[in-house]
Structure formats: structure tokens, C-alpha cells
């Protein structure tokens, strides 16, 4: 059996227009060509149109370019009834190119002032719905022209970010030009005056849904004149005069729903609105501190037939009370409503409630006020998950964004609340988010991927994401041509790649190549996606097998390109970290040499050590440290100015983080293996900062500083500099008191090489007076050093253990003696067995 599509034809003028239809089953097979393959060009037109309808605009364009027939079908009016430009740069010229397809567009979503300016060039005079965000720079002039060119407009939404440059003048223009308007929601306007609101009341007789959200001032009395309004939101609006509200808004004859979330509304105003308004059914007051702090109001509020949604109420229970059937589970109220028989009045209220709740919860999550843990765990997370299943795309997006936001404790340090993240997981949120991520709508893909990424910071959630197939989904999204989608997917892979158990799965899903391709695809103008891709590659490169595959798919070239050309510090830091991890595998693969041989790699890393950002300097120094284990790289780093740069870095990081100090000293340690570099470090003044770092309180810094000083001490000139710069007391202190056995060992080695007699001859060069003073100084330093070297050696000898072993010769006793003298890490040092 095969599928065919019953064709429906609608007449428009003299032409027949194909409309999408439904599938039927029939016994015939699709036409096959001579090789037994499906001949796609013989598919019924409606099947092709239905296929097109499941693709984004970019894929539709690609498919349309394959043949003339599909090009014609690809511009069918039914495919161009809505347009989402948010992910695309849409200027005037782009809009003009799209104009031929936009005659029948009814719904438009855009982002930013440039796209707003270009809307009129689409020539879509039949537009009914316009929704825009990132509207801070949109002006009165732009909005007025949009209104004037689209007289059929029924819905206009700008937000949730603030429309700072829009005034009441633009609102008056909207009122005059768009008489069919029934929904108007604007965010962040400084002042909405009475003239503008009265113009809406006069000209827009069908205006039923009004939102002046996060505004500074709104004329309360004038709002009382909009008799047609059924749903009104002033959420987040300041300077409200609640006495006037309760006096004038109770006269609105059709008002069913009122949203005052995030305002300072008074309990008395709530009670008066409920008591005096005949039509008001639902009042949403989420995160209203005055109500929540009034414990008597919160505990004793009761107003039969009037529904209050607040942080202290059971929102599911309140919403469920709208329905006659109260036997169903309250937590399923939204899904039950969507699957129930349609009731116009209830549908209006529930549709508005979904929008209002998604907006309010997102705003609360963004502000992250203290003391809401119980709310989020008991109902907030569950509400977002239910809203994510809405049929309203913008509600779905905001709910997913809310999930991504409310779990974050500290965005700077990428820390999330484990309890909140796992609450989402326990309520089936991972599966819901992954289903959204599979949507063909790129806005949903982006927000779902963002939520998955943030939740995956928690190890338990990351495991669940992997088990439910999330890695393959994110790897596929990382290949998206939509930058926002690719960026969030790369962020998800970055967080998942922290877990060692997920790295192999990311590689198997093709994630490594997808991430490398992202760097080439968005090499300019995509700092966010580049940082996330480089960060994910840095984590993956820490695994030996993944490290080799990163190099195979072109990762070395991509990361070096970022280190050389990108100016954004986040990208620089992650690129340098990735190169450091690629070079960290020693003899297990050839990546260390490959990075060094990549044109401009070493020069770029040397330059990054001069960055004003500590994170960039730290990772660049770490990369140079790892690369210096290769003999050719070591000399090439010096030739690229690495000695001077790293000495300057060591001088500047005395008060920096232990991580930066460790890597600065470590890079000098790696370079100083070469005698020529060791001499150059001494001449550049590298001894003094290394001695300062040896006095650090951090164990890791002790080891790298002592290691560098040990290498420098091979040269008698450097040995003398160490004495003259006060290095002997610092090394003696390390030798006797460092927590690190490795640091104590290398400090002892440095002291031993300094005073093996070679420095004495070097010290005698010069004037006789200088020689005498140095000789006296050297004698005292030598005695101090030899005393502590002997004490260090004795720390490995336990007299009781030795005597027991000598008497019994038992294997266990001998093993105890051996283990007490073992320095596990010493096998990695480049020194003679006799030294150890």
C-alpha cells in the first residue's frame, strides 16, 4: 500500500489554487523510475506543498531551486501566510526581494529596528498580525509608517524588551490607521497618555486585548474609557494610582481578565475590584510584594467566583475552578482544556491566561527574587512545562525560555540550582524539551536547546538528556543554518561534554565535525556561537580519542583561526583552552606537533598572553606550557617572542589567580628545558618573578615555580641570580614546608644544582670587592641550602621502618620503606635517575 493525497482546489478569481490536504491510503504505488527509485517529480502537487509546509524558509528555498515545478509550488500563497524573520538580517533590499511572495502574508514576526524599517518594503498590505522583539531602537516614525501601510492590522505586539523610543504619538497613529485592531501589547513605553488611550477607544471599537507592560506611566482614568476591552495587562508598570484604578476600571463592562503582576497593587484595590466589577473573572497578581507581605490578606483571601492568581495561591487549582468538571486532576487543567469541546468564553480566558502566565513567569525568573524556591519547586516549574505544550508558539517559546532562566543561579559562573533542574526532569521536562527541539520552527528549536543546555549543567539532568537521545538532537541542531539555533545547540554540547561519559557519544553523533564547521560558518559576526563551539571542543579535546578526531576534522586550523583573528575575549579564552587540551596528550598522538606547525598558532598564543583579560592570558600560557613539551615547538615559541612575553606575564600576575600563576610559571618551566631559553629567561629578568611565585600559597604554583627555578639553576649565571634575588630562602621554605612532595623535591634539586661548585667560579668574575661580598653571601646560602637538603632527604627515612625491614626482610616491610620514599610524579620529570 502507498499514500496519495486527495487534491482540494479552491477558486480565487479565474485561477485554481492548490490547498494542502490530508493523506489517504490506496493500493497503488508511487511512480518508480527505471532503477526502482521514487520519481519525486511525479508526486501530487498537494503532497509537495504539504512537504514544503513542514520546512523552514531556507529549506523551502533550497527545495524550490531543484526544478521549475517545485519552484512554482514553492511560492504557493498557502505557504506564505506567515513569516518569521527573527533569525535573519532583513534590511530594505532583502524585504524587496521577498515582496513577490508576501502578497498573502497575514502574520509576521521580526527582530530589531532594521527589520522594522524594512517591513513596509514587503508590500504585505494584508498583514493582520505583527509581533516584534528587540525593539529598543524602533522610533515613532517607523511604527507610524507600519501602521499606515497596514490598515487591516488586527494584532500588534512589541516586547518583551522596552520600546524606549516609542511615545503616545505612535499609539495615536496606530489608533487612527488600524481600526480593525483587537489586540495591542506594548512594553516599556515611558508614558501612555490619555489622548493616546482615548484615540484607541474612539477608533478601535474591536479592541479587546490591551497590554501596557513595564511602562513608566499609564493614564488610569483614560483606560477606563476603553469600553470594549476584555483583557487588560499593566504588569510591571510603575507609578500606578490604585485608587483611580479601583474607581474607574470597575466600570469597564466587558473586562474579564486583569494582569497586575510585578506591580505594587494594594490589597484594598484588589478587594474593591473584585467586589465592584460585575464582569471581572480573573486577576493575575504574580510577584506583587505588597500583597505577598500582607500575611492576613494572603491567608484569608476569599472571593467566591473571582479568581486570584498569585504566588501564594495554588494556580492549578484556581484555573481548574473555571471549569464545571472539578473531578479531573488539577495539574492537567491546561491539557484537558485543549482536548475538550470548545467553549468560546473559556477559550478566550484560557488563551489569555497562557500568554499572561508565560510572560509573568519569565519575568519573575529573569529578576530571580529571593525566597521563591518553594514556589518554583511546588508549581512554577510544572506551570512552565504545561505552558510549553500550548498551541500558541510564542507561549511555548517563553515557557522554554523560562525553564532555561529559572534554574540559573549565577550566569557568570554557569551554576544552576540542582533542585529546580531535577524538578523539571522528574516532571517529564526533558522529553518535552527534546520534542520541541525537533520542531521545524526555528524559534522553538532555539529556546528548547537553550533550556536543555542550562539544565544539563546538572550532571543528573545531563545523563537524562543523553539517555533520551538529546545528544543526537543537539548535534543535528548544531548543523542549522540559523545562527541562534546553532549557538544554543553548541551550548548544550558544551555543557554535556563536561561529563567524560558523554564525550564518546558526542563524537559518534558527528558533534565534533558539526562544532568545527560552526567555527568556519560563523567566523565573523557570531561571537556567541564561536565561544560555545570552541568551549565544547576544548572539553572534548581533553579526551585522547576525541582529541585525535578534532584534529582530523580540521579543528586545529579552526581553533588557530579563532586565536589569531577573533577579538572577543570569551572566544579567545576558549580557543586557547582547546589548543591547550589538544596539545596535552604528549606522545599518545601528534596533536602537539600539529598545533605548533599550524601557521600563526604560536605567534597568536604568545600575543594572547598580553591580553588584558586574565582568563585569556591563563589559557594562552597553559597552551604554550603544553606545546613546549615538543622540542621544535619550544624553540619556535622562543623565536616568536615567547620568553619575553611569559616573563612579562610572570611579573604581572603576582596578585592574579592561582590558575594564571601556575600556567605562567609552568610555561617558563617548559621553555627553560632548553639551555638557550634558560639563559634568555635569566637575562630577561625571569628569576625574580619566579621566586615571587614560589612564595605563593597555592600548592600547584609551588610545583611549577620550583620546577622552573630548578631548570634555571642548571646555568651558573642563573643560579647566581637566584641567590642574589633572594631565591635561597624561598626554595628552602618550599623544601621544608610545602604541602606538595613534588614541590619539595624540585626545590631540593634546585638547591643541589645551585651549590654543586659551578656557581663559585662564575661568582668570582668581576671586581675583587664584589667577589668577596658574593663569596661570603654564597657561603651562608650554601650552608642553609645543604642543611635543608639533608633534612629533606631524612624526611623519607623512618628509622623504625628501616630497622624493622632490616631485621625481618619481610616483603611488606620493604614495600613500606619503598613507598615512603616514592615521589609518584617524579617519573615525569626530565632529570637523571641519580638525581631522583
Descriptive notes:
Its main location: nucleus. Pfam families: Arm, F-box-like. It is found in: Nucleus. InterPro entries: ARM-like, ARM-type_fold, Armadillo, F-box-like_dom_sf, F-box_dom, LRR_dom_sf. Belongs to the beta-catenin family. By secondary structure, the protein is of the alpha/beta class. It has 46 helices and 18 strands. Strands 5-6-7-8-9-11-13-14-15-16 form a 10-stranded parallel β-sheet. A two-stranded antiparallel ribbon has the order 1-4. Strands 2-3 form a two-stranded antiparallel ribbon. Strand 2 and strand 3 form a beta hairpin. Helix 6 packs parallel to helix 7 and helix 26 packs antiparallel against helix 27. The longest helix is centred in the C-terminal third of the chain and has 27 residues. The protein starts with a strand and ends in a 15-residue tail after the last helix. The N terminus and C terminus are likely disordered.
Strand order of the largest sheet: 5-6-7-8-9-11-13-14-15-16
Task: Count up the helices.
Answer: 46
Portion in beta strands? 5-15%
Oligomer: single chain
Which term fits the overall shape? elongated
For the residues shown, what is the average pLDDT?
A: 86
Number of strands: 18
- Which structural class should the secondary elements be placed in? alpha/beta
Using the CA coordinates, give the radius of gyration: 35 Å
Helix content: 55-70%
Largest sheet: 10 strands, parallel
Organism: Escallonia herrerae
Domain F-box: 37-83
Protein name: F-box domain-containing protein
GO biological process, one term: lateral root development
Amino acid at each position: 500500500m502507498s499514500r496519495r493525497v486527495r487534491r482540494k482546489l479552491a477558486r480565487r478569481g479565474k485561477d485554481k489554487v492548490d490547498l494542502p490536504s490530508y493523506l489517504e491510503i490506496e493500493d497503488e504505488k508511487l511512480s518508480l523510475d527505471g532503477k526502482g527509485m521514487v520519481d519525486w517529480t511525479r508526486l501530487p502537487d498537494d503532497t509537495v506543498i504539504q512537504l514544503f509546509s513542514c520546512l523552514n524558509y531556507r529549506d523551502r528555498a533550497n527545495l524550490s531551486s531543484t526544478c521549475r515545478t517545485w519552484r512554482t509550488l514553492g511560492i504557493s500563497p498557502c505557504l506564505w501566510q506567515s513569516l518569521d524573520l527573527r533569525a535573519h538580517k532583513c534590511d530594505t533590499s532583502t524585504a524587496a526581494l521577498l515582496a513577490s511572495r508576501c502578497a498573502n502574508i497575514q502574520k509576521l514576526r521580526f527582530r530589531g529596528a532594521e527589520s522594522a524599517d524594512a517591513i513596509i518594503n514587503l508590500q504585505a498590505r494584508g498583514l493582520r498580525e505583527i509581533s516584534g522583539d528587540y525593539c529598543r531602537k524602533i522610533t515613532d516614525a517607523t511604527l507610524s509608517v507600519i501602521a499606515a501601510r497596514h490598515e487591516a492590522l488586527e494584532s500588534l505586539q512589541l516586547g518583551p524588551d522596552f520600546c524606549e523610543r516609542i511615545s503616545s504619538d505612535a499609539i495615536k497613529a496606530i489608533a487612527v490607521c488600524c481600526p480593525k485592531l483587537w489586540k495591542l501589547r506594548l512594553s516599556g513605553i515611558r508614558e501612555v497618555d490619555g489622548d493616546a488611550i482615548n484615540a484607541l477607544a474612539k477608533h478601535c471599537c474591536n479592541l479587546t486585548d490591551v497590554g501596557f507592560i513595564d511602562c513608566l506611566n499609564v493614564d488610569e482614568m483614560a483606560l477606563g474609557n476603553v469600553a470594549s476591552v476584555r483583557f487588560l495587562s499593566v504588569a510591571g508598570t510603575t507609578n500606578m494610582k490604585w485608587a483611580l484604578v479601583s474607581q474607574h476600571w470597575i466600570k469597564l463592562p466587558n473586562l474579564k481578565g486583569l494582569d497586575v503582576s510585578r506591580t505594587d497593587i494594594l490589597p484594598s484595590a484588589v478587594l474593591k475590584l473584585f467586589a465592584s466589577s460585575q464582569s471581572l473573572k480573573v486577576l493575575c497578581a504574580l510577584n506583587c510584594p505588597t500583597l505577598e507581605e500582607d500575611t492576613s490578606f494572603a491567608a484569608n483571601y476569599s472571593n467566591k467566583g473571582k479568581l486570584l492568581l498569585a504566588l501564594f495561591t495554588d494556580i492549578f487549582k484556581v484555573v481548574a475552578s473555571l471549569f464545571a468538571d472539578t473531578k479531573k486532576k488539577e495539574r492537567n487543567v491546561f491539557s484537558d482544556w485543549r482536548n475538550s469541546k470548545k467553549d468560546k468564553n473559556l477559550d478566550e480566558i484560557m488563551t489569555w491566561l497562557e500568554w499572561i502566565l508565560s510572560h509573568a513567569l519569565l519575568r519573575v525568573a529573569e529578576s530571580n527574587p529571593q525566597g521563591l524556591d518553594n514556589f518554583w519547586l511546588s508549581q512554577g516549574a510544572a506551570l512552565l512545562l504545561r505552558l510549553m505544550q500550548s498551541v500558541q508558539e510564542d507561549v511555548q517559546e517563553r515557557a522554554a525560555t523560562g525553564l532555561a532562566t529559572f534554574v540559573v543561579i549565577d550566569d557568570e559562573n554557569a551554576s544552576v540550582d540542582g533542585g529546580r533542574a531535577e524538578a523539571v526532569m522528574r516532571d517529564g521536562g526533558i522529553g518535552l524539551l527534546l520534542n520541541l527541539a525537533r520542531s521545524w520552527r526555528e524559534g522553538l528549536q532555539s529556546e528548547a536547546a537553550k533550556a536543555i543546555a542550562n539544565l544539563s549543567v546538572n550532571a543528573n539532568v545531563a545523563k537524562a538528556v543523553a539517555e533520551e537521545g538529546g545528544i543526537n538532537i543537539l548535534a543535528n541542531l548544531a548543523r542549522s543554518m540559523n545562527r541562534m539555533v546553532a549557538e544554543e545547540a553548541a551550548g548544550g554540547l558544551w555543557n554535556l561534554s563536561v561529563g567524560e561519559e558523554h564525550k564518546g557519544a558526542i563524537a559518534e553523533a558527528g558533534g565534533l565535525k558539526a562544532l568545527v564547521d560552526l567555527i568556519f560558518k560563523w567566523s565573523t559576526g557570531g561571537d556567541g556561537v564561536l565561544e560555545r563551539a570552541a568551549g565544547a571542543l576544548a572539553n572534548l579535546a581533553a579526551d585522547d580519542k576525541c582529541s585525535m578526531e578534532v584534529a582530523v576534522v580540521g579543528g586545529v586550523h579552526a581553533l588557530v583561526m579563532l586565536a589569531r583573528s577573533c577579538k572577543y575575549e570569551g572566544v579567545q579564552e576558549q580557543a586557547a583552552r582547546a589548543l591547550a587540551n589538544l596539545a596535552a596528550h604528549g606522545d599518545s598522538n601528534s596533536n602537539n606537533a600539529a598545533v605548533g606547525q599550524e601557521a600563526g598558532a604560536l605567534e597568536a598564543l604568545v600575543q594572547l598572553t598580553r591580553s588584558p583579560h586574565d582568563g585569556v592570558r591563563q589559557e594562552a600560557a597553559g597552551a604554550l606550557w603544553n606545546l613546549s613539551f615538543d622540542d621544535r615547538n619550544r624553540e619556535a615559541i622562543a623565536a616568536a617572542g615567547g620568553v619575553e612575553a611569559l616573563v612579562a606575564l610572570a611579573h604581572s600576575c603576582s596578585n592574579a589567580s592561582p590558575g594564571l600563576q601556575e600556567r605562567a610559571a609552568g610555561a617558563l618551566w617548559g621553555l627553560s628545558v632548553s639551555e638557550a631559553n634558560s639563559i634568555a629567561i635569566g637575562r630577561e629578568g625571569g628569576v625574580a618573578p619566579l621566586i615571587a611565585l614560589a612564595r605563593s600559597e597555592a600548592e600547584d604554583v609551588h610545583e611549577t615555580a620550583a620546577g622552573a627555578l630548578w631548570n634555571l639553576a642548571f646555568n651558573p649565571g642563573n643560579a647566581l641570580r637566584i641567590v642574589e634575588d633572594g631565591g635561597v630562602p624561598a626554595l628552602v621554605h618550599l623544601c621544608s614546608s610545602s604541602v606538595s612532595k613534588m614541590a619539595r623535591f624540585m626545590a631540593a634539586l634546585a638547591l643541589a644544582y645551585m651549590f654543586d661548585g659551578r656557581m663559585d667560579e662564575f661568582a668570582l668574575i668581576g671586581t675583587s670587592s664584589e667577589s668577596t661580598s658574593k663569596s661570603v653571601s654564597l657561603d651562608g646560602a650554601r650552608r642553609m641550602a645543604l642543611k635543608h637538603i639533608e633534612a629533606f632527604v631524612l624526611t623519607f627515612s623512618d628509622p623504625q621502618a628501616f630497622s624493622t625491614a632490616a631485621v625481618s626482610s619481610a616483603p611488606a616491610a620493604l614495600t613500606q620503606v619503598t613507598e615512603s620514599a616514592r615521589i609518584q610524579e617524579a617519573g615525569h620529570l626530565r632529570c637523571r635517575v641519580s638525581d631522583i
